[in-house]
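Q: what sequence does this backbone want?
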């Protein structure tokens, strides 16, 4: 799977979060629930100061067998005290671009990324959904590197 190395400035993400892990039998349900809350629950419409309309799926706070998942948007300033605020650190990232069915394309990409020998820093990996077409989505995945 091809990728490019990019350097990103710090990003602020506001949204909803939960803790899960790859071995959690409820992982898909937990993550799906966050996206449902973001869109069907009205959270997306309430987020102030959005930089753009791209949805962000952020993986942070990595522990031995768990991580925090945040579904939200990048903002210029966090002004939603009732929501989770996370920082994507500035730094070097491997950027993977995929296209296709929103869930399948991301799941397949992660399956390949987990098999790669990337010098990951585990400081904050994220997916940026560049359009909302569920069947033909353009998604960039960013993996934080050392």
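A:
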């Amino acid at each position: 799977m091809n990728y490019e190395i990019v350097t990103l400035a710090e990003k602020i993400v506001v949204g909803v979060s939960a803790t899960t892990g790859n071995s959690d039998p409820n992982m898909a349900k937990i993550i799906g629930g966050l996206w449902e809350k973001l869109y069907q629950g009205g959270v997306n419409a309430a987020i102030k100061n959005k930089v753009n309309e791209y949805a962000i799926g952020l993986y942070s706070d990595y522990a031995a067998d768990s991580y925090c998942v945040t579904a939200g948007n990048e903002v210029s300033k966090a002004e939603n005290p009732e929501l989770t605020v996370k920082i994507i650190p500035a730094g070097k990232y491997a950027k993977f671009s995929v296209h296709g069915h929103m869930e399948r394309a991301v799941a397949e990409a992660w399956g390949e990324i987990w098999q790669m020998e990337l010098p990951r820093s585990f400081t904050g990996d994220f997916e940026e959904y560049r359009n909302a077409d569920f069947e033909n989505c353009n998604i960039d995945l960013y993996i934080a590197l050392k």
